[in-house]
Amino acid sequence: MEMLVASAVGVLTTVGIYLVLRLRTFPVIVGVSLLTYAVNVFLFASGRLAVNHPPILRDEALSYTDPLPQALVLTAIVISFGMTAVVVVVALGAYLGNDNDLVNDPDNPEDAISKEPEA
Amino acid sequence: MTIQRLAKVALDTSPAPARARGSFATPAEAEFALRLSRGGNTAKNARTLRQKERLMSLLLIVLVPFLGALLPGLMGRAGRQTCAMTTLLVTLTSLVGLISQAPAVMSGEVVTQSIVWMPELGLNLSLMLDGLGMFFAALILGIGVLIIIYGRFYLSRDDNMGEFFTYLLLFQGAMVGIVLSNNVLVLLVFWELTSLSSFLLIGYWKHLPDGRQGARMALTVTGMGGLAMIGGMLLLGRIVGSYDLTAILENREAIQASPLYLPALILILLGCFTKSAQFPFHFWLPHAMAAPTPVSAYLHSATMVKAGIFLLARLWPVLSGTEAWFFLVAGAGLVTMVIGAVVALFKDDLKALLAFSTISHLGLIVFLLGTGSSYAAVAAVFHILNHATFKAALFMTAGIVDHEAHTRDIKRLGGLRKLMPITFSIAVVAGLSMAGIPLFNGFLSKEMMLEEAAHTTIFGPDWLVPALATAGALFSAAYSFRLIGHTFLGKVRDDYPAKPHDPGIGMWGPPAVLCALVLFIGVLPQYAEPLVFFVAESVMGEAGAIPEGLHLKLWHGVTPALIMSIIAVGGGLILLLLYRPAEWTWKVLPVPFAKSIFDGIIAGVVALARGVIHPLHDGSFTRFAGLFFVAVLALAGHAWLTGSVAPPTREGLPMGEVAVAGWLMLVVSALALIWYHRNRLFALILMGIIGLIVSIGFAVFSAPDLAMTQLSVEVATIILLLLALNFLPNTSPSESTVLKRVGDGVVAILGGLMAFGLSYHLLLRDFVAPTISDYHLENSYKGGGGTNVVNVILVDFRGFDTFGEIIVLGIAALVIYALTQALMNGPVRAKLLNRRPDKDLAGDMHPLMMVVLTRVLMPMVLLVGVYIFLRGHNMPGGGFIAGLVVAIGVVMQYMASGFYWAQERQRYPYHGIIGAGVLIAGLTGIGAWFTGYPFLTSSFTYIHIPPLEEFEIASAMAFDLGVFLAVVGAVLLSLESFARMARRADQRESEYPMDIDPSREETT
């Protein structure tokens, strides 16, 4: 079982990194989401794996799995939704404003800065 | 019970810093200590507070302006009069509190109050009130009262008065905080707050470029000085071993003997000199004159610029008396006094003239503090008082002239004596005081300064200091005469920009009060003597005493000082008569302007920053990301190669067929993304599969809460990305070269292998150190009253984290809303409205089946949400999950019947829901304070309502309700913002829930 989880984390990381290095916003967002899965699963797994030992206190239960990583990952999942949404709206704004969805700034930044009015 | 134990830990740790460094009996205790230090207040503090309830506590004197700062800002619509009255009441309240402490202070007691905050770091909110603090606080609040009255009549109807008074009160609170601080770290915080509030006030007229630039310059200079001072104060604390001022003040010998004395002194002086506009940091002050005149009168003459002087006076007992102090402080003061006075004479702008004159007078005070003698300390205190009275009055006069004549250019004024007789009288009294004429208070302290200068030698010949001091006084007299003569005397002109006349009493009253003080002290100095001596004694502490036989009086006999004074006044008059040739000479002389030097330095720094940043950040995200991954991989690889791995200590779990099937689905979907990611819709489907498997994985591995959260977030994320795909192209072009793809692939595979290796090794080994999880499991029910440990951790053990997280989530949603609004109001708007969808749309966009189904589902969704919420404390569920479920239920209504229809029926704005959630969570946390426990300590009880079973009610439930509302609001606000963009011009907004409704009589 450990092998399955660890290899899943590895595959998610691989695909996530590859997509983050693409040139358009959408694959980058998908890539970041995959990296989020990988990180969340890794963090969760740092409590070690256990089947049928949920951290719900019962009289008949003998042991429980580690609740702390679960609590941390739970908020991480919700926050990652918020962050994805922010990145998506930024990507949308960039696309609508420039008519392209490239992640890289096509202009030379030197020119872009010197165009700004002097303070 | 958790709370009792927690309080016990708090009491144990506070007095013994050693315990905080890791010698806790259990890790759980360490966690609690951590929570306490973040939570802020402790049960012990509550007791400290209760002990100090007599009269009005020092804390309240400081806090009242800060709390009051909310009022004018909030009641902007209540009218100008109400707004000003409220501000006035706030300041008066604080002033009354201060006066209530006066008897104790006057009897020689030092009133203190301390609230333990982070005792391990020596960071406590400790306040003290002694003679010096009392004197400054009275100046700040007393002049504050006058400024508020004046400001009420000075600001025009177009100005936002609420905003102005809010900033002013913020400043006032920060300033009172500085003078009452008993802990240098707390003092630093207030110090920086004055810089910030001064920035806001200088830039109050946002439409004026001068104001913006002046505000930036002031912030840069005083902020940099503040940073230097932080270093100096930390050194000082290091030498003494305590950050308490009272402790520092008792260690004169230790400080002056320390090798760190000189660096500490220089750093602290940098802070003081920048704040008090001493040469060569004086240039920001004239530029700060772009502020409204009440601000100039308050901050830049009477209070803020005196903060540096206050600190010099405060630290005088421990820092003064050395050679370094003498040369640096007296030298800078002397130079500043002369330069300021010379420049002031040739300024045509009334406020610029006054600004340079302020610089000069501040230099005078700094010089007096620098000489280090007791006599000079008395003179310094006396001049602080005198300068505050006449200079604030003069600034207000300049404001009146500007307000009535619509110009403050001396060249365009003159002859105002007949048109503005009241203003003229005030200007004469205050101006003659500034010039140092007998019977006005400025004369007395200036005489004392000259007397001190006559006995001071610095850098060479004996005559140098007296000559410079006389020159300073001479120019001082000259510009004072010019201010009176060129503005008010002379012939009445007929070309003023407006018709000047005296203003109402609201504007001339405050400076008139100050003028009365000027005359009172000037004629009867013996009545000011006890006060001045008392404050001076408090400045000197044990490092000095009032010189024998010293009295403040008009006539000392013919002394060197009197002769110097006569030369100065006479010379000043002659200089004014020769003003034209003098001005010509001034203009011909090449004078380097500090501002151009400052601009040069700033330009240099900017160029340097560009030179460093641009080669690294060339605007290519792919490049940063690639660099980042490679760097992480290199670090991880290094760790892997140099570290060693212990043998596995855990048995692996057996693999089941179902698990392998799930794994296969996940891996195949992920790998398929590499080939098919250009088809974006398909990529989303693949992503959905991965998310689903991850949720199921959580469920399998004993994490039901995570499974539920992941599943509902998955739905919301997919909806969000679908909404985004509505605008974005449906496919990504194939544009990277094969080489790049191979390179990226290598990095990606290496990263994946490392992540795999790390996870695999981690999973087969036990924890090397005991974790705090056992503590959570043990105390979840006993202390937190819930059996779902994950939920109890979220709402109780680590409630402070959760509180932060819902705030972050709320902010994220507001950012999305704001960005959307910005897009919709920008040039993109037309593009969005006229957008043609690239696919054919269904004729029936809001199908009957779906509409009916979502309506039926809605109550059930709500029911499920409430159920999940209520059981959350004991069974899987809770605020986060319930919030997501309810949000999805509402989103379904938008999807079924369209944005317009659903929005019409949405009664509460989502911003409000987010705000309510954060407020409820915060208030629940604050509730614990009232029972004397730290922020967010939860409590619970069991109640029994007849037909129901006995059930538990915990304050954590209210906190979870806050979480629930914040999540609902945040998710809906984000999705709604995207949907808002999707509206198009060619689409009619339907008021019906569905497009085709058989029961509706079509009229079209």
UniProtKB/TrEMBL annotation, chain A:
<dbReference type="GO" id="GO:0005886">
    <property type="term" value="C:plasma membrane"/>
</dbReference>
<keyword id="KW-1133">Transmembrane helix</keyword>
<protein>
    <submittedName>
        <fullName>Na(+)/H(+) antiporter subunit C</fullName>
    </submittedName>
</protein>
<dbReference type="InterPro" id="IPR039428">
    <property type="entry name" value="NUOK/Mnh_C1-like"/>
</dbReference>
<feature type="transmembrane region" description="Helical">
    <location>
        <begin position="72"/>
        <end position="96"/>
    </location>
</feature>
<feature type="transmembrane region" description="Helical">
    <location>
        <begin position="26"/>
        <end position="51"/>
    </location>
</feature>
<comment type="similarity">
    <text>Belongs to the CPA3 antiporters (TC 2.A.63) subunit C family.</text>
</comment>
<dbReference type="Pfam" id="PF00420">
    <property type="entry name" value="Oxidored_q2"/>
</dbReference>
<keyword id="KW-1003">Cell membrane</keyword>
<keyword id="KW-0472">Membrane</keyword>
<dbReference type="InterPro" id="IPR050601">
    <property type="entry name" value="CPA3_antiporter_subunitC"/>
</dbReference>
<feature type="region of interest" description="Disordered">
    <location>
        <begin position="100"/>
        <end position="119"/>
    </location>
</feature>
<keyword id="KW-0812">Transmembrane</keyword>
Automatic annotation (TrEMBL), chain B:
<keyword id="KW-1133">Transmembrane helix</keyword>
<feature type="transmembrane region" description="Helical">
    <location>
        <begin position="621"/>
        <end position="641"/>
    </location>
</feature>
<feature type="transmembrane region" description="Helical">
    <location>
        <begin position="422"/>
        <end position="443"/>
    </location>
</feature>
<dbReference type="GO" id="GO:0015297">
    <property type="term" value="F:antiporter activity"/>
</dbReference>
<feature type="domain" description="MrpA C-terminal/MbhD">
    <location>
        <begin position="666"/>
        <end position="729"/>
    </location>
</feature>
<dbReference type="InterPro" id="IPR001516">
    <property type="entry name" value="Proton_antipo_N"/>
</dbReference>
<feature type="transmembrane region" description="Helical">
    <location>
        <begin position="741"/>
        <end position="763"/>
    </location>
</feature>
<feature type="transmembrane region" description="Helical">
    <location>
        <begin position="260"/>
        <end position="285"/>
    </location>
</feature>
<keyword id="KW-0813">Transport</keyword>
<feature type="transmembrane region" description="Helical">
    <location>
        <begin position="558"/>
        <end position="579"/>
    </location>
</feature>
<dbReference type="InterPro" id="IPR025383">
    <property type="entry name" value="MrpA_C/MbhD"/>
</dbReference>
<dbReference type="Pfam" id="PF00662">
    <property type="entry name" value="Proton_antipo_N"/>
</dbReference>
<dbReference type="GO" id="GO:0006811">
    <property type="term" value="P:monoatomic ion transport"/>
</dbReference>
<dbReference type="Pfam" id="PF13244">
    <property type="entry name" value="MbhD"/>
</dbReference>
<feature type="transmembrane region" description="Helical">
    <location>
        <begin position="126"/>
        <end position="150"/>
    </location>
</feature>
<feature type="transmembrane region" description="Helical">
    <location>
        <begin position="463"/>
        <end position="484"/>
    </location>
</feature>
<feature type="transmembrane region" description="Helical">
    <location>
        <begin position="806"/>
        <end position="826"/>
    </location>
</feature>
<feature type="domain" description="NADH-Ubiquinone oxidoreductase (complex I) chain 5 N-terminal">
    <location>
        <begin position="119"/>
        <end position="165"/>
    </location>
</feature>
<feature type="transmembrane region" description="Helical">
    <location>
        <begin position="55"/>
        <end position="75"/>
    </location>
</feature>
<feature type="transmembrane region" description="Helical">
    <location>
        <begin position="953"/>
        <end position="975"/>
    </location>
</feature>
<keyword id="KW-0406">Ion transport</keyword>
<feature type="transmembrane region" description="Helical">
    <location>
        <begin position="653"/>
        <end position="674"/>
    </location>
</feature>
